[in-house]
Design goal:
heterodimer; A: about 650 residues; alpha+beta; 4-stranded antiparallel sheet; 10 strands; about 10% strand; B: about 180 residues; alpha/beta; Glutaredoxin; 2 domains; 5-stranded mixed sheet; two-stranded antiparallel ribbon; about 20% strand
Chain lengths: ~650, ~180
Amino acid sequence: MLPELGQAALLLALLAALLQALFPLAGAAGNRAAWMAVARPAAFAQLALLACAYAALTAAFVQQDFSVKYVADNSNSLLPMVYRYTAVWGAHEGSMLLWALMLGIWNAAVASWSRRLPDPVMARVLGVIGLVAIGFLSFLVFTSNPFERLLPAAAEGHDLNPLLQDPGMIIHPPMLYVGYIGFVVPFAFAIAALLEGQVDARWLRWTRPWTNVAWGFLTLGIMLGSWWAYYELGWGGWWFWDPVENASFMPWLVGAALIHSQAVTEKRGSFGGWTLLLAIAAFSLSLLGAFLVRSGVLTSVHSFAADPGRGLFILTFLALVIGGALALYVLRAPGLPQGRPFAAASRETLLLVNNLLLAAACAMVLLGTLYPLLADALDLGKVSVGPPYFGTLFILLMAPLVLLVPLGPLTRWQQEQPSRPLALLMPWLGLALVLAVVAYFMAPQGPLKTAAGVFASVWVGLGTLRFAWTRLRASGRAFTPEMLGMVLGHAGIAVFLVGALLVEAQNVQQEVAMKAGDTARIGRYAFRFDGVERVQGPNYIADRGLVQVSRDGRVLAMLHPEKRAYASGGQIMTDAGIHAGLFADSFAALGEPLGDGAWAVRLQIKPFVRWVWAGALLMALGGFVTALDRRFRRVSADPPAPRGRDGAPSMPGGGT
Amino acid sequence: MAGNRPVLAAVIAAVFLGLVGLLLYGVLVSDRADRTALPSPLIGKPAPEFSLPVLHEPGRLFESRELAGQPYLLNVWGSWCPGCRVEHPVITRLAETKRIRVVGYNWKDEHADAMRWLEQFGNPYWLVLVDYDGRKAIDWGIYGAPETFLVDAQGIVRWKHVGPIDGTVLERDLLPALDAIGVPR
């Protein structure tokens, strides 16, 4: 009974979405207040109905109702309780329902916090979100119904994919989806602005926190995915340029460009058209990501079962949304005001360069991800695009960006003497160079990468702190959450760079055959192998290795690398044993038994790897803190910014 | 910007239409590759002759005629290939039945990565051939990894599958193909 109620709720949610799209959009066009007023209640109704549908599916999992096909396919009676809740989004149908629920939450949040907006703007923004919801919900209802019955009911289910039976996997997808779908808000705003025919700084100010929060969640989602891959795939890598990783990385890059260009447009009125295009692009790339993962067009560890019917459906939806948005853009954007002129040396120019580099990096990732398909279509043979392409080009594109990061906040709007910010930063540039040279000669291996990592992180870190210090020292001027967010985000880049470059340069790895009692040494670390025991998990049997790791003779930890055989599918999973440290992780993964009590064991020391995720965490935090700025909640309709000719003293924020 | 309007429109339209066209092609191809194996001109013809190094015995060249007389399954894989990980348990289960020799074809890979991959996930292969520059792969018409060829005792290619072999493909296509060429159960 419950699943049928869930299905009914889903259908009604689709109806609510239809109402939310049709009446407010038509009402805004014809200026009918009553029609526009439909938007809010429809949004709340949609969320309530989606929550019911989601609860119904969750209940089916918890009660192990194997008469529901999706439940039978993705859980079995041995599945631990916590994974019954998370199995809801373990495969295609349920994860689409989660997407829809997240969209519903954003939708209701926009409906709650849009009372300051003029009615037609609110109606258009909610109407556009309603259109998107129609697409998602009809996709669910017509091609991917999670409530489909299995008659006769199965006696036992299959299992949740063992890759997904893991704490990291519990929170990774929801975070990612919140981020992905959150870009619907700037998108809806952009469409509303294009329909309206003008970009008003007040509405832009209203969208900025939404973009920052969505981007922050996307950052968290990507970070969790990377962390999960690190310990679960047993490779010790943290980024693979896998098509699905790329699918989440593209909206992230464009989103990063967007939060910068929105700041420029809001404060200076420049880049108006470009900001709208980026907002459209960020959401389009989110949809493209969903398409790539779910259509089976590209193969990847993450792909859901391929189904061309679904592929065609999402592609049509994608083409309508993106095509419609771009057509509107081409028709309306050229009429937008241009904003104030700025000199070649100004913060606007720096942010333009930032935007171009991020957009180019995104285009590079898009090309690399789709190139195998393109080569196939043009009959150029099978081409695999791997980390060498992505890694090299990404570093080439991001290196200038990293060099410019500290300059941005210290440079004035509109016009700047280049020597002024340079003079402020010169001592720190010198310090960074000196430290890089020291690192070059001290590094036990990979001196170039180490030096690059030290230079880049010291330069970005201290350069950012230099800005914070200048602002804090200047009395009488507030250090706003917006500035704090910017400082956190940029400091996050510095921390991330330490991790990314140093772990690449200093990672040490050994594959050894070990018997109980053997000790292997890597530098100051010693790994003692105490043999392998057999353990029984709730739904798997594992060989668990016992590896004692010590540094300079002091015992750090007992590692338990596992190889698990899941009862359901015979799939073997590796679970690395990791001792996390601020400056280095010690990592052990169990290989094959070599007979005679010996096992192949892979040992690694990964210096600074935690900094990769700490940096991402700081960036996400930066996004959230920025959104807290009270300026974004101000009711007054004041012009965007004080516009002194000398820019800097009156600049309203740090230029997020 | 007003003067650039047609140019801007044309660029946006070209990128958009190109992308949609490409993805549409992708959807249609994903259908083909998934439901029925890509038709291979090799099916019914003798397998290409080759002489390739062996992964576990660097320096040794393995000649294709050493495989003659018994059927074998040629499984193209690489440590970089996610689909290969997906099909790995299925290949392993098949190899454990000892019904047929499974020859690994390690394609466009690095020696150390390939060794680590096998060590990590287990080595189901009777023998692993190495083709790192992909030169011999052209003779086989290898389209991507994973890809699997069934060659009978006379050295004739009898069946081919593009993409990961899952339980369904195994039961529905591969096992019947083994029966068809008379591999004893």
